[in-house]
Amino acid sequence: MLPAASALLPIDEQVVEDRRYLHAHPELAFEEHETARFVAERLRALGIEVHTGIAKTGVLGVLHTGRAGKTVLLRADMDALPIHELNDVPYRSQTDGVMHACGHDAHTAILLSVARAPHDRSGRAVSRLMETRSACPLYNYLVILSPCGRSRAPTSSRPGSAL
Fold first, then answer.
1. Which positions ≥6 away from 20 have C-beta within 8 Å?
2. Which residue range(s) make up the domain with 41?
3. Cα Rg for the chain, rounded, in angstroms?
4. Rounded Cα–Cα distance for residues 97 and 82 (Å)
């Protein structure tokens, strides 16, 4: 059963706040030091194990649920583009010549929201991020926020432990 819409409202407000902060503070690929700090701080506040310095400025968050089973990997890019922002909004880029014109600010904010979802109001990790019609439980979660989509790191999938 999916959470009631009222339970998601605080998450929605946090997504907007996080996205606007990230939009106002863009950083180019492999220069996302403040973005990485921001993301790592948010994940640590949730009690998520955090590893930084992945591919220079990437962040890895691991949510241990204490259950054996499948692992879900979620990732988003964090980098901005070398473009001057012309928008006149309160959260406009504060870095001249750099802006989030590609949506990575939103992707990062959404992934941070997903990282918050497995916690109930008491802060304990719950065993399921979501249930589908097939009732497939998702037990372990990895959240990766990387410097850019141009990573040369190999990506693969296989049963069993990968880390």
1. 90, 91
2. 5-146
3. 17
4. 6
